[in-house]
Amino acid sequence: MLKYILKRLGQTLIVIVIVVVAVFFLTSMLPGDPVYIIAGDATLTPEEYDVVYKELLLDKPIYERFFIWLGNFISGDFGRSYLYNVPVKDVILSRVGITVYFSVLSLILSIIFGVLFGIICAVNRGKVVDTILTLVANIASCLPQFWIGLILLFAFCIKHQILPSLGFGWPGKVGWATHIKTSIMPIVCLSFGSIASYVRQTRSSMLEVIKQDFVRTARSKGVPEKKVIFKHVMKNGLIPIVTITGNRLAMLLGGSMFVETVFNIPGLGALMMKSVLGRDIPTIQAMVILLTLVSCLAYILTDVMYVIVDPRISIVSRRE
Amino acid sequence: MSKVKAVNPNTNNVPKRKTGTQRFFSILFQRKIIIVCCVILFLFVFGSVFANVIAPYDPDDAVMRESSQGISSAHWLGTDNLGRDTFSRILYGGRVSLAVGVLATLVAAAIGILIGMIAAYFGGWVDMVIMRLCEAMMSIPNIVLAMSLIAVFGSGLINLVIIMGISSVPVFVRMMRAQALQIRESEYIKCCETQGAGNLYIMFRHILPNAISPLIVMMTQMVGGMILMESGLSFIGIGVQIPMSSWGTMISDSKTYLASNPVQAISPGICIALLVVCLNEIGDAVRDGLDPRLRGEL
After folding, report:
1. pLDDT bucket at A317, cuts 50 / 70 / 90
2. Average pLDDT, rounded, for chain B
3. Best label site of A200, A233, B16, B236, fewest CB within 10 Å?
4. Distance (Å, rounded) from C-alpha A88 to C-alpha A72?
5. pLDDT of res. B259
6. Angle formed by the axes of helices B124-139 and B86-122, nearest 10°
């Protein structure tokens, strides 16, 4: 097990090295002179231009710049954000909490509701409940997240003024009531699509297990139906859930981009979007590498979870 | 007295053996909902291909005195803040959304199939390098990869299609490689090799046709995802650019006028959802029709 994890970490390291190199050289190709991006609309004298030019090390050859940048990056200095004019690290640290908070909360809600509805569908296969839930889940997984957000805004802020439209505050600052009010819509919006994918996955994998021999045996020897479903079927049927949870974890920091944009929440997704629009190179570099790291770790975690959840899977056979 | 039905030996009850195509279509339309989906898909395709004939107004014709109207008989879906007819804009926007979705999928498939084939066929360090690069690309979330590439190479319709395609290449590479590795071991490929067939000949005349069905399934299933991705990128403002507009840009434009004119935001979203649902359902049906064994894998 340990050997396997070490091997996966080694592979991941190669992946990250590729991403880091690609990110640096691609962002160096960005059109537009970084000096002018920083200056914004201000006009520069040639002397001022030279100062910033030297500060950005643009007078040095690209490979030299790469190693200086890499050294800074590893020691935790991601450069200065062009848009905010503060270190990128500070920008990211000030926003990461909100995004993790929303993503984790929505993940927990999606697992609870998604698995619950999925089981209801599988148990009542072919009945009205199943048909309706499956249909809703199929449609819900195709709705663009930002559109759901706009519809929610329209329904609950504009038509019926029940919820405040924008902004976010931690409970310590604005009090619990406001905090909950401002978080309901983003969380519903964020969870909608992932509940749908949990429902679909749970339903199909439960149905796959229900038709297997050991379930028939359990039923024929008189095990109560509830026990068959909750003990025999669920234990085996929930393994594929690990896969989706892994995928969701991989999107932990980047998945809430649209929701953050629509509801004006100052999180990492909104930062990513703003930095792409504003060509904020250091922030783009740091964000892409951060998101890659998170998703690599999530995939390793998924593989390890598989083995823990399902002892029949041996790591060696899964890889071959 | 019971009547015994006369059995005509010539019209026996054993159903005729279906040909491959017949079997494909009978499984495809097994579920009645697929027919509905096909009709809706046809309407969307028809509407966007013949947008210039069907659309009652010019989609770019801004008539300020008719701005921000609701649903009426003159403007079926109202007008936007500039007085442009929403129904006409949806028809033209569908053209862009569908075209981008299909073309991006084709780009992804074409590049992916080629690279996957090369990886499987040549093996060794070529394979190693290609697979590591794929892993690196897959470790960056899809939309983030597309966004970053757009930041580097700029937006614009052709760039958008190519970038969206490239961000989805790794899935095709992996699938093609897996298929090709399996087929390469077959006897008939060995036979071809001993007969002196060239690499390219074997790759495109023997391996590709035998590997194509899961790839086709994957393509049909990907178009919907591509349309969603395009709408997302356009919503952010880095996808389809003015003067063109897609459903995503329409939603993006309308978000400022949500209070006064909700139809503007709702209608393109419904179009996206309907189209993507239909495409996904048809994709699943095509999978079952082409190769039922793929169920659960794709």
Report:
1. very low
2. 85
3. B16
4. 12
5. 81
6. 150
Question: Contact at 8 Å (CB) between B216 and B290?
Answer: yes
Distance CA B180, CA B164 (A): 25
B261 to chain A, minimum CA–CA distance in Å?
Answer: 10
Tokens of residue B199, six digits: 């690499």
**Pairwise CA distance, residues A82 & A91, whole Å:** 11
Determine phi and psi for B15, rounding to 5 degrees.
-65, 150
> Do residue B273 and residue A250 have CB atoms under 8 angstroms apart?
no
Q: Do B266 and B77 form a contact (C-beta atoms < 8 A)?
A: no
Tens digits of per-residue pLDDT, A236-264? 877 878 888 988 888 888 888 999 988 88
Read off the pLDDT of each residue in B185-204 and give the average, rounded to a whole number.
85
pTM of the model: 0.87
The DSSP 8-state label assigned to residue B85 in this structure reads B
* Cβ-Cβ contacts under 8 Å, A257 against chain B: 143, 236
Do the Cβ atoms of B269 and A29 come within 8 Å?
no
B113 neighbors B212 (Cβ within 8 angstroms): no
Q: What letter represents residue B31's amino acid?
A: R
Q: Give yes or no for a contact between A152 and A185, defined as CB atoms under 8 angstroms apart.
A: yes
pLDDT for B3 equals 53
Buried-state track A59-88, b at ≥16 Cβ within 10 A, e below 16:
eeeeeebbeebeeebeeeebbbbbbbeebb
Q: Which residues are bridge partners to B85 per DSSP?
A: B79
Asked if A25 reaches chain B (Cβ–Cβ under 8 Å), the answer is no
Q: Are A238 and A115 in contact, with CB atoms under 8 Å apart?
A: yes
Question: Which residue(s) pair with A87 in the sheet?
Answer: A80
Residue of A nearest to B150 (CA): A276
Q: Output the CA angle A275-A276-A279, nearest 5 degrees.
A: 75
**What residues of chain A, 104 to 163, have a C-beta less than 8 Å from chain B?**
138-139, 142-147, 150-151, 153-154, 158
Sequence-separated (6 or more) residues with CB below 8 Å from residue A162? A156
Q: What is the pLDDT of residue A31?
A: 67
Burial pattern B107-132, b for ≥16 Cβ within 10 A else e, equals: bbbebbbbbbbbbbbeeeeebeebbe
* CA dist list (Å): B87 to B22, B70, B247, B255, B266: 38, 12, 11, 17, 12
For residue B18, pLDDT beyond 90: no
**Contacts with B224 from chain A: Cβ below 8 Å:** 142
Identify the residue among A276, A289, A297, A319 best suited for mutation to test binding to B, counting B beta carbons within 10 A and taking the highest: A276
d(CA A16, CA A20): 6
Spell out which residues of chain B touch residue A279, defining contact as CB-CB under 8 Å. Answer: 151
Residue A23 reports pLDDT greater than 60: yes
Which of B141, B148, B149 faces A295 most closely, judged by CB atoms?
B141
Of A14, A147, A153, the CB nearest to B269: A147
Which tokens is A217 given? Answer: 């045996």
The whole-angstrom separation of Cα A199 and Cα A197 is: 5
Q: Which of residues 187-226 of A touch B (CB under 8 A)?
A: 204, 208
Q: What is the pLDDT of residue A109?
A: 95
